[in-house]
Each structure stands twice: as structure tokens, then as C-alpha cells.
């Protein structure tokens, strides 16, 4: 496609890689300043980004003036890159797009509650959210719900904003493990241990189902890991296994996320009722659907608008309801098959790499 990528931070993300694979690679400028696991040391990564950005200006300048591409796309978070390109593009010789993966204000204030919503930092983050829309010619977001939030809550003009969901691969070569001797329900969650995911409610459901018939595996790490370990120990929840971080795919290992998805009977989404959780589809749900696995997740705004009869939607922040629905789903094989098939069809239609490419081609011509 006739566009090139300018990115200093996010080229190794799944979303970033799909933009890059569809770009004119010889004209890209990609420098990975932030680490892959940027959530673990968020502020340190941001500081490194600020320190090293000035050193990259000469590369940005040379690539801008030598690039033959008329369309440039900046990957999230990309604020400094956008500002610099805006200055260079004073003649408006190029069209600048921005992949607005998520709102800075939404993530740090409403979701993670790092600062008060009345603080100066809160106002500054709203300013940044609005600024990146003003200095870019068009933008991408992941959902219509996010687009509406930006327009209605933050008063951002989204007239040139396109919905482009993040795709997932579906061509992994692993075979499902044999289940001939399996006489229990394997329930799997993977992801960052953050408040948005509602892990406390998963623990509550495990307590309700505290028997050998229902086994929970939680894959990942994060801010809440110590609290989760403490709850499991203090409340003697014996049907939960914590694995720590695992690679998503390792062709030579049976101890990766793909293997655990394949061995799962039920995959879990997210269970909080935060604003952010209502506006997006967690990537773990897409990944589960790509493997034709039934998913249970909170009945969020996104789920109600897009995933009716595709996932098993339950009351948010309710461990007892989660436990009841796990039992109901596991003991109804026809219902499990229904969600498995519906989820996979939804994935192919909306979240495949081919769909991403076709959608991107209609936007960037």
C-alpha cells in the first residue's frame, strides 16, 4: 500500500506489526525506543522515550524529506513524532495519519485511576488527546464505541476517524492436545494482571467452584499479582494455577499461551465495569475466538453492540454469576459448540489479518 510508517515506540506490538506489514517498508522509519513489556516499567519507558527522542530528530527529518510517500502513519503513542511531522509538513505536502490506539485520559485517569480527574495532569491528558486529532489528518481507533466516547465525552471531532480493529493470526501449526483422559473443566485466562480485567471476580468464581472438576489457570503478571497470590493463600483457593508470563507462541514448547488455549474448555475475557472495558474488545477474546473456543466475559457496551450470541455475556463484577455460567456452559455441549462456531465466524469476518488489510486499503488509497 502507498503509505509509510513513522514509529519510535510501538512497532513490535501486534497492531503495529500489521500496519508495518502492509506499508512500503523501504520508506519506513522505525526505531524501537520503548521495551516490549512497557507496562512493567511504564514511567521509566516514558522517560527513556523523552530522553532519546531528540536524538532521533535528524533521522525523522532526513526520512521525511527523502520519502516519496504522500501518506505517513504514526503509531501510538507517537505524540512527539506527530508534533515534529506537523512542523516539517507546514506546506502540507503529505497526509499524516495517526493510530489512536486508546485515549491517554481514559487509560490513566478513568481506567487506572493514577491521578484525580480534577488534577492538572487530568486536564493535560485531555489536551493531549485533543491535540493529536488536531495535528493529524486522519485517525484510526479500534471500535465505534471508542469513537463515540471521544466525540461525546472529550468533545473531539472524529469526522476523519476510521474504525480499524486489531487483527490476530490464525495459522499456528499446533494440534489440540488429547483430551481422552480429561475429566475436568479447564478454564484459562491470560493477560496483564490489571484492574480492568476483573481478576478478583475470577478468584471469587473459583471459590464458588472450589472442586477438582473446575480448574482455573491464570497466565500473566502485573500490578495485582501480589494481591492475587495473597488472596489465593489466605482464602485457600486450591483450584487456581498461576503460571507467570508465558510466550504467546513457541513451536517447540507445550508451555505457551497457544497450547493453553488449545487445551482450554472455556476461555475468560474481562469482568470489570470500567469505562475502558465497555469501549473495546479485549484481545484475549479475539485470540480465543480464533481458536474456536467458547468465551465468557462481562456484558459490556461493546459486547451488547457487537457480540450478542457470539460470547457468553454475564453480569460485570460478579463472581457468583461467573461461576454459575461456567457450570451452565460446561454442562451444555450444544451451547459450547454454538459459541465456538459463532465466535470463529465472527473472528474471520472482523479480526483476521486479511480483513485488516482489506479495510486499510479502503482507507489509505
Question: Could you describe the 3D structure shown?
Answer:
This protein has a 6-stranded parallel β-sheet. It has a 6-stranded parallel β-sheet with strand order 9-8-7-10-11-12, with helices on both faces. It is α/β, with parallel strands linked by helices and 365 residues long. The longest helix has 25 residues. 45% of the residues lie in helices and 13% in strands. Helix 3 links the parallel strand 3 and strand 4. The termini are close together.
What would the keywords be for this entry?
single chain; 365 residues; alpha/beta; six-stranded parallel β-sheet; 15 helices; 45% helix
Q: In summary, what is this structure?
A:
Helix content is 45%, strand content 13%.
